[in-house]
Design a protein that fits this description.
Blueprint lengths: L7 H15 L9 H13 L4 E5 L5 E5 L7 E6 L14 E3 L2 E3 L3 H20 L9 E6 L7 H10 L3 E4 L8 E4 L1 E10 L3 E2 L8 H10 L10 E2 L3 E2 L1 E9 L5 E2 L2 E10 L5 H13 L3 E9 L2 E2 L5 H14 L6 E3 L5 H8 L2 E4 L14 E3 H14 L2 H8 L16
Parallel strand pairs: 3-6, 3-7, 7-19, 8-18
Antiparallel strand pairs: 1-2, 2-6, 4-5, 5-20, 8-17, 9-15, 9-16, 10-14, 11-12, 13-15
Helix pairs in contact: 1-3, 1-9, 3-9, 4-8, 7-9
């Protein structure tokens, strides 16, 4: 399929907008300046915006007037807190922009900004379509920004921006995170007495494959698996430890039941005189087969890039999870760049993909795409929480 290459004007716009956002320090907990910046930008371009408070006392931003949108396209504005100098100094090498947040997720924010302007330039206006762009706070820590957005907007369909290389992330892992407290019996370290909790913990870790998690497998996400990421124990060199705490993480794939997995792991731990303390549990999700969201994104991507994209599995939690869990939405993960360099001093993105993503999103706002998602059957999952009536 023939396609028009992105123009130097689009690339220059992407470079400029992204450099401005990278230069705004916006770690989780400090997103105020970037939300202010985006709000002022929307006002300067005749775009309606409103703030949506999150329970942590910070505001996300919605651009577009529709209160009950069919489609919400969501990018987060926070970054990790950097541990290296010069993180917020943007650096450009040709079409590649370096800096904290370049791909996670300020490149996605720029794609949304450019799409809104391109749609407007083509004679449309975001206020006239049942779609919004939303900019969430707190993605890197608690996810409270997208949680409140999901409750407020409850869109039928949602796209969460992360670096997928402009491939649709149609399935996302769930997660079971827990502390495992292994008990033993203390004794003087020079005596062959007591019951060493560390040794019991080592046997527990070695036996994790016996849980049979690998039987749960997904074609895009692979096998369910358990890993231990932290170990804490001991009172000194000469004391047999009577306790050992492990931080256990289990990757869950679609079709795997969270509660049944918790029960299975609890029973397994009990065999090692250990107890399970839940930290977090999230249910994996998958975009339903035949979803019109997948169809319109694939068509728009093929129109812009010349080929229909292959789907991928998303191995980590994203804001899409909250739209599924709290908004009752069908959701996918999609965006420019690759997360391979995210959260590191080498973080970067090619702005060509930002410009292409903007074109794809602008296409989603056009009448054929809107008609396709409007014709979708009623949602099978209603929003878990409903916003209060005014």
């Amino acid at each position: 399929m023939e396609r028009a290459a992105v123009t130097e004007g689009e690339l220059g716009e992407a470079r400029s907008l992204l450099a401005d956002l990278i230069a705004i320090y916006s770690p989780s907990g400090g997103e105020g300046p970037i939300v202010d910046h985006l709000e002022a930008w929307a006002g300067a371009h005749d775009l309606t915006s409103r703030r949506v408070p999150a329970e942590i006392g910070r505001d996300s931003l919605v651009i577009g007037a529709c209160a009950d949108p069919l489609l919400a396209i969501v990018a987060h504005v926070d970054t990790i807190t950097p541990t290296w100098p010069g993180a917020t100094v943007p650096r450009t090498e040709g079409d590649v922009v370096h800096g904290l947040g370049a791909v996670d997720d300020k490149g996605g924010v720029v794609a949304c900004m450019m799409a809104a302007l391109a749609f407007q330039k083509a004679g449309g206006h975001l206020d006239d379509v049942p779609a919004v762009f939303a900019f969430a706070v707190d993605e890197e820590t608690g996810g409270s920004g997208s949680r409140s957005l999901a409750v407020d907007l409850a869109p039928r369909f949602a796209i969460a921006l992360e670096g997928t290389g402009l491939r649709p992330g149609t399935a996302e892992c769930g997660d079971l995170e827990a502390l495992v407290h292994v008990s033993g019996v203390s004794a003087h370290g020079s005596l062959e007495l007591g019951d060493n909790a560390v040794h019991a913990a080592a046997r527990l870790i070695a036996g994790l494959p016996s849980l049979g998690l690998a039987q749960h497998r997904h074609p895009l996400l692979g096998e369910s698996r358990a890993s231990v990421n932290e170990i804490a124990t001991g009172d000194g060199m000469n004391v047999v430890p009577d306790r050992c705490t492990l931080r256990l993480q289990i990757k869950l794939v679609p079709g795997q039941d969270l509660r049944e997995t918790i029960r299975l792991v609890s029973e397994y731990c009990a065999g090692f005189n250990a107890t399970l303390q839940m930290v977090e549990g999230t249910v994996p999700f998958e975009l339903p087969a035949g979803s019109p969201l997948r169809a319109v994104v694939d068509r728009a991507t093929e129109e812009v890039r010349g080929a229909r994209p292959e789907p991928l599995g998303v191995p980590a939690w994203t804001d899409a999870h909250n739209f599924v869990d709290f908004g009752g939405s069908e959701a996918m993960v999609f965006g420019p760049g690759s997360i391979d360099s995210a959260h590191t001093p080498a973080e970067h993105i090619d702005v060509t993909q930002i410009a292409e993503c903007a074109r794809i999103f602008a296409t989603l706002l056009e009448p054929p795409s809107i008609a396709a998602i409007t014709a979708a059957p009623s949602r099978p999952d209603q929003p878990r929480y409903r916003k209060a009536e005014p």
